[in-house]
Amino acid sequence: MKKNYLKPTVFLLLLWPIYVISYQIIFDELGPEPVDRIINHFGEWTLIFIILTLSISPLRKITNSTEWLKFRRMVGLFTFSYASIHMLSYVGLDYRFDIEPLINDVFKKKFVFVGFSAWLLLTVLALTSSDMMVRVLKSYWKKLHRLVYVIAIFGSLHFIWLSKTIFFKPLIYSIIILILLSFRIKLKKNA
Ligand code: HEM
């Protein structure tokens, strides 16, 4: 594939969660609880995208190619967008944009508290993702963007705490995240 087609192609692929949910909305396949379906769809995809973001460094190392780094910002911004759609569908569809019950939930339910904290941290990373911010923050930029590991831990805790009965899926995601975190620690030790 010609190099100038690669980025737009990856961009279209990363829109996959939007295609799936649009199909389900159009063909009335959201099931008996459509609002929960939409919230959960984007929640799960946010976690998958966090995993994709964490996979870029190991992929670079394993394949010995820096090509992967070209997509890091795009994947990161998609992660932030899906987390924001997830949060906005909760606030908008569940609470009709009434902020008070959201604030109550943040302080009363620990799974909402960690989810919200993860979203706030993602916002900081999205706001500092531009080339200009890389130049302004210099060596602090790298340190700041290590917050993605904290976000990943908060994201898996969020999933574990909200799942009252089904633990299989949150467990699988948490194991994948732990493997990627240990890979990162190993890379640092060998550096
Ligand atoms: C990085 C940020 C976040 C990640 C990775 C994330 C991930 C998830 C995941 C994986 C699910 C479950 C999906 C499923 O059952 O298939 C979920 C559900 C949910 N999330 Fe999040 N989330 C995040 C942020 C937030 C925020 C900011 C809020 C609200 C302020 C929130 C509120 C909820 C709610 C209400 C549910 C549904 C719980 C239920 O089924 O009763 N999440 N999220």
Gist of the model:
The chain has ten helices and no strands. The chain has 191 residues and is mostly helical.
Write the layout of secondary structure elements.
Elements: H1 3-14, H2 16-26, H3 34-63, H4 72-94, H5 99-108, H6 110-127, H7 131-137, H8 139-145, H9 147-162, H10 168-190
Helix pairs in contact: 3-4, 3-9, 3-10, 4-6, 5-6, 6-9, 7-8, 9-10
Bound molecules: protoporphyrin IX containing FE.
Protoporphyrin IX containing FE binds at residues 36, 39-40, 43-44, 46-47, 50, 83, 86-87, 90, 112, 115-116, 118-119, 122, 151, 155, 158-159, 162.
Task: Tell me what the structure shows.
The protein is mainly alpha-helical. Helices cover 82% and strands 0% of the residues. The protein has one domain. It has helices at residues 3-14, 16-26, 34-63, 72-94, 99-108, 110-127, 131-137, 139-145, 147-162, 168-190. Helix 3 (34-63) packs parallel to helix 10 (168-190) and helix 6 (110-127) packs antiparallel against helix 9 (147-162). The longest helix has 30 residues, at 34-63. The chain is globular. It binds protoporphyrin IX containing FE.
